[in-house]
Amino acid sequence: TLALSAAWSKLQQSLGAAERVFELLENADRLPEPVAPVPLPDPRGALAFEGVSFAYAEKPVLDAVSLTLAPGEVVALVGPSGGGKTTLAHLALRLFDPQAGRVCLDGHDLRTLAARDLRAAIAYVSQEPVLFDATVYENVAFGDPHATPERVEAACRAANAHDFVSALPEGYETRLGERGASLSGGQRQRLAIARALLRDARVLVLDEATSALDNASEEAVREAIAHLMAGRTTLVIAHRMSAIERADRIVVLDGGRVVEEGTREALLRRDGLFRRLYEAGGPTREIAQ
Fold first, then answer.
1. 89: Cβ contacts below 8 Å, ≥ 6 apart
2. Nearest C-alpha neighbor of 46 from the set 119, 105, 124
3. What ranges make up the beta strands (E) of 132-246?
4. How buried is 53 (Cβ within 10 angstroms: 0-12 exposed, 13-18 middle, 19+ buried)?
5. What pLDDT was estimated at residue 289?
6. Which residues of 269-284 are buried (b: 16+ CB within 10 A; e: fewer)?
7. What is the pTM of this model?
8. 3-state class of 205 per DSSP?
9. Residue 283 host element (H or E)
10. Tell me: the pLDDT tens digits for 142-168?
11. Which of 217, 264, 194 is nearest to 236 (CA)?
């Protein structure tokens, strides 16, 4: 009787979880696909936000933001919490559509592109990398399911991951556990970077991948990120001053608006928000979450 009662309880819990999963699946593609998508055979990586406004449940987050990233340019977004940094990155990934204005890739409104072409053109590395209960090889190859073992290994070498992967009990065939539970934070980040390298997208969105790491892990991940950023248009959400070192340009968001823009040196010469954030946080501590 006790066993049946426990089984019934687990079944009810599973049914509740299944309902949430199906709700997610039903809403996963809620953004409409274009009827006649614009082809994007060889993206250059020019990214533009043109008068973009966005609100969550009528709460304004972005207000007529305009920003352009040239192919290969690295732009860092900094600013106080709630300023719109993450929302801007999500619009670049077309997780949402703006309520006003448009986001363009190579001059094409993202709403005119097929989802598969947009996903192939943009790679995303977050603070919390998504790893599956699968082998190292399968987790990295998720960036390109057709990748050969040689390409997966090359991506891991470039991401400073090959040495620790080789030391795992079964190397690239080692199962990682749910969310990569058997790895450290720095190791998980390096595998996520290897996946993005394998994908070879022209645009890279970094939701500052080193903010939750200790100094030793951060250095290894920063080296891997430098390889990943090479030659790619990169939008960095910066929580630490160390994240802006390789930025060609810094954009300061506050209250959903661009309030400052320029190089680090130029912004530090002004008596503006960036300078106050820099002096308050210091070069290695956090700017503002």
1. 77, 124, 205, 207, 235, 237
2. 105
3. 203-207, 233-237
4. middle
5. 44
6. eeeebbeebbeebeee
7. 0.80
8. strand
9. none
10. 888 888 999 999 999 888 889 889 999
11. 264
- Identity of the amino acid at 89: A
Which residues contact residue 114 at a Cβ distance below 8 angstroms, ignoring those fewer than 6 apart? 33, 34, 37, 40
CA distance 156 to 67: 33
Nearest to 88 by CA among 105, 71, 70, 67: 67
| pLDDT tens for each residue of 56-91 | 887 889 999 999 999 999 999 998 888 888 899 999
Length of the chain: 289
Q: What is the DSSP letter of 289?
A: -
Q: What is the pLDDT of residue 285?
A: 46
For residue 287, how far is the Cα from the chain centroid? 19
Of 250, 239, 252, residue with least CA distance to 286: 239
Q: Which amino acid is it at 282?
A: G
Asked if residues 253 and 206 have their Cβ atoms less than 8 Å apart, the reply is no
Quickly tell me which residue has 């599956």 as its tokens: 132
Amino acid sitting at position 108: H
